[in-house]
Structures are given as C-alpha cells and as structure tokens.
Design brief:
With 861 residues, the protein is mainly β. It has two helices and 72 strands. The strands form 13 sheets. Strands 5, 6, 7, 8, 9, 10, 11, 12, 13, 14, 17, 18 and 21 form a 13-stranded mixed beta sheet that branches. Strands 36-35-34-33-32-31-30-37-38 form a nine-stranded antiparallel beta sheet, with no helix packed on it. It has a nine-stranded antiparallel beta sheet with strand order 60-59-58-57-56-55-54-61-62, covered by helices on one side. 27% of the residues are buried.
Length: 861
C-alpha cells in the first residue's frame, strides 16, 4: 500500500519535531500490535513460498539476514540473522521493522534499494532517499541489489585495513559476511582513474562502473593497470653472436591517487643488470629501459608498457627485444686498460673469447663480490657502490655502519656500539666466516630473507620489537626461547629467526612489551625447511586449529575472521566454526597457564551453551548424550562390523557420527537405563563398555567372515551379529550353561530369493499376558517344505542315528519301530487317514463305539 507514491508508515512524527514519539491511530495501533505479535511468534510460522515484499536477503550491521518466514496471506516477510540472532520484517507497506521496533527504513521493490528519511518538506512530510545502512542482497547471498558500488570486495577473511589510494584510507560503506564465510564489502564513491590497493592485494585502477575484487578463493586477482611484466628480455651488442637473456628477479611498486610506478629488475646469468620502468599517470602510460651489455656498455631507451616495445635505445649498437636475437660476433685481438679499468689482456676474442683479470669492467655488475643486502645485529646495510678496484661498499641509512667486501672476498667494517669487524665472504654458500666481532651477521636476498642461516622458525612483522622471545609447550614441557637472529628487511618489515625449535609444540610470541599475547601456533619439523609465520598484515591462519570440525556428522568450517586473542597481558584466544547453512555453530578456545588448555563450546541447537574439553589433537570430552564432535566425517555404514548387534537380546545400533569420531565401528544401546557401547576397530579388536565406563568391561575379537565374536572365557552371555534384514548372522555364547534372557532363539542360515541371509529355525517363547493365562512356546521353521525329525543314537556316543518320529510338510506324523525299520510302522495322516503296520490292541473299558449293529444273517451267507 502506498500513499502519494510513498510507502505508508505506521504513524507520523509530531508536527515540527522529530522524536521517537509517534501519533498512532487505533487502526495503525492494531496493525502494529499484529506485527509485533507476529515477530514474537516468528519461530512458529514456517511458510514455504517466496517473499512478497522484501528482497531475497538483507545485509544489516555486518550480518546477512536470510528469508525464513516468507509472506503468507498478507503477513510480512520475515528474515533471520546468523545463528538465529535478530529478526527483520518487511510488511505489506514495505516498512522495515528491526527486532520489533518502529520502521526506520522502507524498501523500494522497483529499484531494489532501501530508503531512509533524509528530511522533511514544507508540509512536514518526510523526504526519502536511498541509504547504504541496509542493503538488499540477491538469492546467491553475495550480490548487492539496486546499488552500483564503485568497488565490491569479496574475501574469505574480512579486511585488515581498507582501501588505500596512496593518500588516504577508505573504509567500506557497508559490509557483511554470509553463511559461507564470504565477506562482502562495498565502496560507493571513488573518483575515476583512482589507483588503489586493498590490504596486501596488487594495485588496481578504478575506471568507472562496479569493479569486483574477488579474493574469496584465497588469491587476489592480478592488477588491471598493466599486464604482467615480461619474464625475459634479450640484449644484443654489436659484437655478440647471440643475445644473452635477462630474467626477471624482482618488482618494486609505488603509487599515489592517480599515478603508478613499477620498477622491474632483471639479471643475466653473468649478473648483468637491466631495469624496466613502467609508469601510469592519470590515463597515460610510458616507460624506460636501462642496463648494461656483456661488453660493459651501458644503454638506455624508451619502453611502451602497453605495446611492450623498446625504442630509441642508445647507443645504437645495442638492440633490446623480448625475443632472442643473433649477431656476427667480433675478433677483439688484444685489449689493455679498456674503459679505464684494469682489464688485463684479451686475446683472439672473436665470438666472445675468454678474458682474464677484468677488474671493475669485467662481466659482473655491482655488487661485484657481496650480496645485495647485509644484516648486522638488526641493522640493514644496503649496497652503496663499487670502487675502481672492485671493492663493494655497504652502509646503513645513516652511514654509521659500514662494510667493505674486497675483490678477494675479504670483509671488514665498523658498527657503532659493536666496533670493528673482519672476516671472509663465501659466495658459494652466501655465508660469512667470522674472524673478529661477527655476531648476528648474515646476507639477505632480493626479498630481504636471510641467506646461509640454519633452518628454523622465521617470524615476520610490520615493525621492530615483536617476537624477540616465544613460549613453547607440549603440556609436558613449557619453557621460553630467545630469538637467535633479528633483521630488518628492505621493505621496512622486520624478521626474527629461531633455530633448533622442537616440532609439535604450541607457541606464543612476545609483543614489544614482553607480553605473550599473540595468536597460538604449532611448530613443525624445521630440520630441513623453515616454518614461516608472516604476520606483517596481521596474524595468519593458525595450524593449531583444525580446518574442519564435524558435529554429529555435519561439517563446520573454520571462520578465521572470528579469531580472537585476549589482548595485552592476556594469554587466551579462540575461533568459531560454522556449517555451510549457518545452523550449526561452535567455538574452539584455548588458555595458556604453564601449558595449554583447550575447550569447545556450542552456540546453536539443543546443545547451545554446552561446553567441554579438547586434548588439542583429536579427542573431545564431556560431550552430552547425543552430541558427537570430531575431526573426521561420519562413517555412514560399518567398515568391519555387522549392521547391528544383539547383546543378550538387547539391540545395539550403529552410530555413524560417533564412529567417525572414534575411527571405529561403534554400536550403542541400553538395558534398563544402563548404557552399553561396543566398538570394533580396523583390526577386528572389540571393546565393550558397560554403564558409561571409560575402561572396557570386556575385550575380544570379531571375525567378519564367520560373523562371530570371541571373548575367550569371559562370561558375556550371548552376542549376535545382525544383518540389515534383522536376521541373525552368527551367535556367540559364553562357555558353560547357556542362558538367553531374550525370548527368541534362531538357528541356521540360508539365502532367500532376495539374496537375504535368513535363519532356518527359531524357538520362541511368549510369556502369558497375565497371571493364570497361557504362555506360548513355538517351534518354527522359516522354510515351507520342512521335515521335522526326531532321532537318537543306536549306541552311546555313536554317530549312527535311529529315526524315532517324523513330521513331514503335509503334517503327516510317522512313528518308527525301535528296530530301525526303514519305513514307519504307524502313519497318522490328517488328509488320508491313519495306517498301522502293527497290531492294534485295545483294552476294553466300555468307551469305544464301534458303530450301529442289527441282528440277521451275516453278509455273504
């Protein structure tokens, strides 16, 4: 219902004011009462067709509300928040009621946006305008409807910072996380041609419209500013017979609001350097190339980053291309003191002959001897220059710390507070041999990672002071370790390295104040490979938490964006898990107190609020009856055991979820309230737990071929394997007297026409329903054609049997002579009468009627 094109609302504000006081007519009051009552009875109404007034889903205050109570006969559309928290209604007037409050938003179904009151006109009528405080979301629970954001971001973790345009940081205009754990953030207004970066993503260019940046698969899409840089560049000097290849070794990026600069660094196999600069400035592209050829000739030129073409290369004797080239070579003869360096002599140098003692102008560009970077007690030393004798010089940013590596790889230097240094640099292992005052001194590669150090635990942070010590524990040993190495990286980040850390220990990292308040992690075997924890942009996902938990067989995925830690001075944390549909939720938490204590807590369903322990490896404890939490999915059918088990007549049923948790076939039942649990592992070992005991009462084995149990001499009574058809496959009893508490004993096994295994004979006892009434003892065959035969041995212990009595399928009873006559001497046949092969003697008693007689002559006389 609309009024003059605007949604009809339940009440208008007092004239001249805007407060929470509304004029509500009696009709509107009745409608509002009906709406609130509908909200209170939300869970009792479950319609099954689509919504009539609102969108498929609603995003509000970071959460996604999904349709759960569609319109039915004029009732409003109902939406419920995550874990059943919060409810939103959109009524027939498109007014939006959040948790039963008066409407503050109205939905525009034509434009698929929500409106809010932005002001009032001269007649005090509200003026409506679209808002981003509340969003209409499509049925895919991802797509924002109605609005056209400048940038939409999808991630699987949320955003650590925001959108950085080189000048300022922008936060999303709205964001939400759906049930699948996908975070959706929208940035509405962004100037055209803005260059920006989101968290640690590549740098992107906004060119209008709606740009989708989708990292939900775990990988950021590539930059759209420029194509990937060439991987290989070829340079041909006039004396070359072939063009050496320069391979891409590193990329450096800087950008501002409307500009982007990229430096691509290339090196040849002989360490010749080539650099391509690629520029973007407010819609224009340009570039340049500089480098040195294998004849020590420096060159420069232009580079078109769009067409990927080189031009104006100087000197003209040098060609640069993205494809390999060939030349004629040259015969250099002898050359001395070439280009001012100490080249020694070169003889018959055609086609690049050999040269010796080349000095500074040889085949290696700076740095000639040493690495690109050096770390000394946490001070970063950058390569500065190479002098005319070939010595490499390094210095820190203040030129207070200096190092020189000579042409013979001898090294010397000075660091304030530490004094002079001397030693030798090994180019093969990239390590320094110390002779004087070398502590915490090592090389760094292009990316600022240590070279030549022993493998271990490597921690990276955005600033210094963090990680100088760690606490480690396996709940048997707990102790503190100090970092073996500390270093600054060229990008401004910092690293610390620990060597000799044992595997499979939990650990916490100290902050700059010495508080061990980090997220919890687990060490791995670092004897051959580093374990790297890159926390430059925030704590990464921790392997201390399982990636997946199963609650009664329902998979619940780790939601890392929910991870929490106690804060400065506190040593605890946790993370949440959710099923795909959001109906099953729980958390896994830890507390560090001279070791690690883990515990689980349910936050949904009938076990909401229940909690218990976890051993940090695989086993969950203090689980209420009916709840199973495990690291493994449910096993739908038994692996080793039968479909079910009869324990002294009590059925034990297969529990799929508990079987997955215990990695066994697990069966459960109870007698008079006393629980019985039986497990069969992959090796056929059986354990029986009575009365909820944690220790087995009986142990034995199960043979899946014979389908029999074996409990040795234990007095277990009777245990039977039962098929899907409820037929007994095999029964095991204790030695000695056999006492069957149940009322049915079945024997034998055969396959019916459906291929099912069926018992052949059963003996059943039916107790009387009341005292003084008759019980029933039934002998039954499961085959239509059955001969019932009674026999005995001809002598004690003999296997030779003598028939005594037989009842055939036609209910004819045959009695045999004790003399082993091959045929019965008496037959009682209800269909054809009785026959006797022996005299029939009758003792007169006056009660045998022989029929009616009369006097007269005898027949045939």
């Amino acid at each position: 219902m609309n009024y003059k094109g605007r949604p009809l609302i339940l009440g208008q504000p007092e004239r001249g004011t805007w407060t929470n006081t509304f004029k509500v007519s009696s009709g509107h009051r009745a409608a509002l009462t009906w709406l609130i009552c509908g909200i209170l009875s939300f869970s009792a109404t479950l319609a099954v067709h689509a919504q009539a007034y609102g969108p498929p889903a609603i995003a509000y205050q970071g959460s996604l509300y999904t349709i759960s109570n569609p319109s039915n006969d004029g009732n409003p559309d109902g939406y419920v928040g995550p874990n059943g928290n919060g409810v939103i209604y959109v009524d027939y007037a498109y007014a939006v009621h959040i948790n039963g409050d008066y409407p503050t938003y109205w939905y525009d179904p034509q434009n698929q946006v929500f409106n809010a009151i932005s002001g009032y006109d001269a007649h005090y009528s509200p003026i409506y305008a679209p808002t981003t405080d509340i969003l209409a979301v499509g049925s895919d629970n991802v797509t924002v409807l109605g609005l056209t954001p400048a940038v939409t971001v999808h991630t699987n973790y949320g955003l650590t910072s925001g959108l950085w345009d080189g000048t300022s940081e922008h936060q999303p205009d709205n964001s939400f996380t759906n049930a699948s754990g996908t975070y959706i953030g929208i940035f509405m207004n962004l100037p055209n041609q803005t260059v920006f970066q989101i968290d640690s993503s590549p740098v992107y260019l906004y060119t209008g419209g709606n740009s989708l940046i989708d990292e939900s698969s775990g990988t950021w899409p590539p930059s759209n500013i420029l194509a990937n840089p060439p991987q290989t560049v070829y340079v041909l000097d006039s004396g070359d017979s072939a063009s050496p290849a320069y391979s891409l070794q590193g990329v450096q990026v800087s950008f501002g609001q409307n500009w982007y600069t990229e430096q691509d660094n290339y090196y040849s196999s002989s360490n010749l350097q080539l650099t391509i600069q690629r520029y973007y400035t407010n819609g224009s592209y340009s570039g340049s190339v500089t480098g040195e050829s294998d004849y020590n000739n420096s060159f420069s030129g232009s580079y078109d980053p769009v067409a990927m073409q080189f031009s104006n290369v100087s000197p003209s004797s040098i060609q640069v291309s993205l494809s390999s080239m060939s030349g004629n070579g040259r015969n250099n003869g002898s050359c001395t003191n070439n280009n001012g360096g100490n080249n020694g002599s070169c003889t018959n140098n055609g086609n690049n002959g050999s040269c010796t003692n080349n000095g500074i102008n040889g085949n290696n560009p700076p740095p000639r001897q040493g690495p690109l970077y050096i770390s000394w007690n946490g001070v970063l030393l950058n390569y500065s220059y190479t002098d005319t004798t070939g010595n490499d010089y390094y210095a820190d940013s203040t030129n207070q710390a200096t190092v020189t590596i000579s042409t013979g790889y001898w090294m010397s230097g000075y660091l304030p507070l530490f004094g002079p240094i001397s030693g030798y640099y090994n180019t093969s292992s990239d390590t320094f041999y110390n002779y004087q005052n070398i502590t915490n001194f090592f090389a760094l590669d292009n990316n600022g990672n240590p070279i030549g150090l022993p493998t271990g635990l490597n921690l990276l942070f955005g600033f210094s002071g963090i990680g100088n010590s760690i606490y480690i524990s396996n709940n048997q040993q707990t102790y503190q370790l100090s970092a073996n190495y500390t270093y600054q990286r060229p990008d401004g980040s910092w690293g610390v390295k620990y060597v000799g850390v044992p595997a499979n220990y939990w650990f916490l990292v100290a902050d700059a104040s010495g508080n061990f308040d980090s997220q919890i992690y687990v060490t791995t075997d670092t004897s051959s490979q580093d374990l790297v924890i890159n926390a430059i942009s925030g704590w990464p996902v921790s392997s201390a938490y399982p990636a997946q938990l199963y609650v009664n067989g329902v998979g619940c995925t780790l939601q890392w964006n929910s991870n929490n830690i106690g804060g400065p001075g506190y040593t605890y944390g946790g993370v949440s898990y959710s099923s795909n549909d959001g109906s099953t939720n729980l958390s896994l938490n830890w507390n560090w107190n001279n070791g690690v204590s883990w515990y689980w807590s349910m936050s949904s369903g009938q076990w909401n609020g229940d909690s218990g322990g976890w051993d940090g490896v695989s086993t969950f404890s203090n689980l209420p009856v009916g709840l199973v939490i495990s690291l493994n999915p449910a096993i739908n059918t038994p692996v080793e055991g039968p479909s079910s088990i009869a324990w002294n007549g009590t059925p034990l049923t297969f529990n799929a979820a508990a079987s997955g948790a215990s990695n066994t076939d697990l069966y459960q039942g109870s007698v008079n309230g006393t629980p019985i649990q039986l497990t069969i592992d992959s090796n056929g070992n059986v354990a029986v737990y009575l009365g909820g005991s944690s220790s087995p009462t009986f142990t034995g084995t199960y043979n899946p071929v014979s389908q029999l149990f074996n409990f040795g001499s234990a007095n277990v009574g009777t245990v039977a394997a039962v098929a899907n058809s409820n037929n007994i496959l095999g029964t095991t009893s204790s030695t000695g007297n056999l006492d069957i508490p149940g009322n049915i004993l079945s024997l034998g096994s055969w396959q019916n026409s459906s291929g099912e295994s069926v018992s052949g004979f059963s003996l059943a006892f039916t107790p009387p329903p009341n005292s003084g009434q008759t019980a029933v003892l039934q002998f039954a065959s499961n085959l239509a054609l059955t001969d019932w035969l009674w026999s005995h041995s001809d002598t004690d212990g003999s296997a030779s049997q003598i028939k005594a009595m037989e009842l055939d399928p036609n209910n004819k009873l045959l009695l045999y002579s004790p003399s082993s006559a091959p045929s019965a001497t008496i037959a009682l046949d209800p269909a054809n009468g009785a026959s006797f092969q022996v005299p029939v003697r009758y003792i007169p008693a006056g009660d045998l009627s022989m029929g009616n007689f009369q006097t007269g002559p005898q027949p045939n006389q």
